[in-house]
Please model this.
Amino acid sequence: MSLNVIKPTEIDENTCKLIGKDWMLVTAQKGESVNTMTASWGGLGVMWGKDVAFVVIRPQRYTKEFVDASTHFSLSFFDNSYREKLSYLGKVSGRDEDKIAKSNLTVADDLAAPYFKEAKLVLVCKKLFKQPLAESSFLDPALTERWYPSKDYHELYIAEIETVLKR
Model:
């Protein structure tokens, strides 16, 4: 079964479950190289009159270099049979090995950002905004104590959803 183009408003799955429970791969290209990381934080919505996705990436993540080097990135969502692969892709750095090759996932490069052919849902996104999260912006200090003991605050990316592919 192939992936078909739909509108962002036609995404009919619970996005809190898709992102927070099922996880996603954030994927981008730098030069001829592609890298990906598993993420479970982010969201979908509307900003500046556009359908958008937002993701956060810690500064030490190798994939951040790829997202920063490109105008676009993709978010790929999978069914539960890929859980082990997503776990592996979230634990291993692309700096250390060719984790995409070892995952046996197939990179597609026919859109503005690379994505995975095995995904059940793909969002190709154009970056609009990025900003580091700042400790001074947190209204609940318990969040920084729990999630940022090393002060390695995520960088927030807001991106326009340009293409949605659904299986």
User: Anything to note?
Assistant: Helices lie at 15-20, 62-69, 83-91, 99-103, 141-147. Residues 58 and 154 are 4 Å apart (CA to CA). The mean pLDDT is 97.
